[in-house]
Amino acid sequence: MAVKAVIWDYGGVITASPFEAFTRYEAERGLPDGLIRTVNSTNPDTNAWALFERSEIDAERFDALFLAESTALGRAVPGREVLALLSGAVRPRMVEALKACKQRFKVGCITNNMVTPASPGTSEEARRKSGAGEVMPLFDAVIESCKAGVRKPDPEIYRMMCRMLEVEAGNCVYLDDLGINCKPAAQLGMRAIKVTSEAQALAELSEATGINFEEELA
Q: In the chain, how many domains are there?
C-alpha cells in the first residue's frame, strides 16, 4: 500500500492506557479485575459510556447511570470516580513518532472522549496539564466523539477522517489500543495496528510506513 496518512487514537496510544488506572482502582478497592471494562462493554452502543462519549448526557447523568450499571453487575462504582481515572501520561516516543510521520504523511486523530477536565479538547489549561496542548496541534485533522456525535467503532467516523484528510482508506495506517476499533478500520481498507505496547506499536508502524523508528528516535 502507498501510505498517505497515519491516523492515531489518543488514549492508550499517544498516552498511557486508562485501563492501567482502571486496574489500580479495582485492586485498591477490592473489586473484580476488569469490572470497569465489563460495565463499558455491556450494551456498548447505549450504555452510560457510549452516551457520554456522544455528548448525549452530562457528567452528572453519567455518574448516576454508571453507578446503576455497575450495581446491576454486583458492585457499585460511581461514574465520577471513573472519570477521574481517564487522564494518562503522554508517551514521549509516540509523540516523536507522530512528528516523524507528519514530516512524510498527513496525520489525523480519532478519539472517543468525553467533555471532562481530562479530555484533550476542553480548555487550554486542561490541554496543558494533560500534555495534549503540545500534541493536538500536530494533527492535520482531529475528530473527538464528544463533538462529532459519533464514536468508534462506527465506520462513519473513519470515513469522516478520510474526507477531512482527503485520502482513501486504503492509503491509511490506523493505530488504536482496542481491537474493536481496529476492526472497522481494517474492513474499510486501512492497515490497522492494535497497540499493545509502545515497542510493538513502533515496530509495526515501521513496517507499515517504511520509517525506521529505531534510528529515527535514537
A: 2
Question: Residue 32 carries which DSSP code?
Answer: P
**Sheet strands (E) in the chain:** 5-8, 106-111, 141-144, 172-176, 191-194
Which of 38, 58, 83 represents a domain boundary (last residue)? 83
Q: Pull the grid cell for residue 50.
A: 457510549
Which of 83, 103, 120 is the endpoint of a domain? 83
How far is CA 9 from its chain centroid?
Answer: 4
pTM exceeding the 0.90 threshold for the entire prediction: no
Domain that holds residue 165: 5-17+89-216
Does the pLDDT at position 163 exceed 80? Answer: yes
